[in-house]
Amino acid sequence: MTQKRYAVPDHVIVKKVGEDTVILDLQSGIYFGLDPVGTRMIELIQSGLPLTDVRATILDEYDVPETVLSDDLTDFVDTLLAKNLVEPV
After folding, report:
1. Please, what are the averages of pLDDT over each run of 10 residues along the chain (89 residues)?
2. What single string gives the DSSP state of each residue in the chain?
């Protein structure tokens, strides 16, 4: 995990709906639904925390093995980057 930070670009809307979240790319019209864990990850990313702190916070809040979380968080961020839903800062 790195000290990299990410932000949601202006063309992306993140909206919490109950315990879940919807991410809408206004340029492409594509949207993604996130479960509660994904919701928490995007909240922490949006708060400006580096990925190491996002991972540490999720480990404190959820009962998940560290290696599984590290892989899942990396995959999550990679997917968001590939779809232009977050950008490095």
Report:
1. 90 93 95 94 96 97 95 96 95
2. --S--EE--TTEEEEEETTEEEEEETTT--EEEE-HHHHHHHHHHHTT--HHHHHHHHHHHS---HHHHHHHHHHHHHHHHHTTS-EE-
